[in-house]
Amino acid sequence: MKICVDARMWGIKHTGIGRYVENLIDNLPGDVTLIVPPDLKNEPKLAKFTKHYAYFHPYSLLAQFEMLWILSFIRPDLLHVPHFTIPVLWPGKMVVTIHDLIKHLSKGRDTTTRHPLLYWPKYLGYLAIVWLAVHRASRIIVPVKYWKDILIRKYRLNPDKIAVTYEGVTPIYFQKPSSPIEIGSPTPFVIYTGNLYPHKNIPVLLSAIKLLKGKVSLVISCARSVFTSRAEDLIAKENLQKFVKFLGRASDADLLSLYQKSLAFVTPSLIEGFGLSGLEAMAAGAPVVAARASCLPEVYGDAAMFFDPHDPVDLADKIQALLIDKKLRQKLITAGRAQVAKYSWATMAAQTWQIYENKVHN
């Protein structure tokens, strides 16, 4: 059985998808052939794999022809594409991972930096390739039941076509930090990690910080973008500069330290693909305060404190409760560590390998 994995998005620089691909490949119980970008030629973690190099960005039109050429040479029995970026010209068997349909639910001018004349054609192209992906796939993998249900309703798919494989947590988050990071906050702080797209609901988090009147500050770890500038404008408008600190994108080691020093990890997001950052925070020993939205209740279970994502007063009350009630905070830490133990990259990879075997032999 010859399995090929499209690993063009391998690694943390591709955020959640990159982390998924990296941990999948780390934990697969059998051998696979990889398609990777040339900058991974000397990546030690991939040294044992047969690799073929793709030079064009996965979202580009030229990548379609490049992938057809590469796959014609590899001739795999099965291709796993861990995103909707399928090679539409390839006629072979494919397993496709659909991490979410966030762009279906959060769209329009506020969600992009592009001019409408560029945005809408690209958006229609996105809709088309996702439609092709879900119908061309021999099997679809999703990270939670929430997205399985949405795919079934939206595309009228047979439920048996879709498998749920929950993700896991990188081992570093279960360790003690080797080099604690200092942020210079004189007050207890909550931390948010991730991008600042509109569906992340950052204005509600900032409003909650304002309601706390300096008793708690906010640390945001994310790569800079135009959405960062929008958040900074709102922070200035609300006079919150003293209480909000941007750190840029942090390493796993730095995030581990930040989680362990924080009062709590807060995710106000209206839509999430999986909510991996919250599980990483739980593993590190941080309480999690999460929006009661999307897949977050499914993933976090009873181990998080949930709030109405449209109500900053509710969020401020939850943070205040953790500030004054040490027993409640410890209860959430204990529950979080029990919850995160339910998730494993090794289990996810084993389930994925079983899907490969079933599709190749059937």
TrEMBL record:
Native organism: Candidatus Amesbacteria bacterium GW2011_GWA1_47_20
Protein name: Glycosyl transferase, group 1
Entries under Gene3D superfamilies matching the protein: Glycogen Phosphorylase B (3.40.50.2000)
A Gene Ontology BP annotation from the UniProt entry: lipopolysaccharide biosynthetic process
Highest rank taxon of the organism: Bacteria
GO MF term (any one): glycosyltransferase activity
Keywords: Transferase
PANTHER family cross-referenced by the UniProt entry: GLYCOSYLTRANSFERASE WBBK-RELATED (PTHR46401:SF2)
SUPFAM superfamilies named among the record's database cross-references: UDP-Glycosyltransferase/glycogen phosphorylase
Domain Glycosyltransferase subfamily 4-like N-terminal intervals: 16-169
All copies of domain Glycosyl transferase family, residue ranges: 185-338
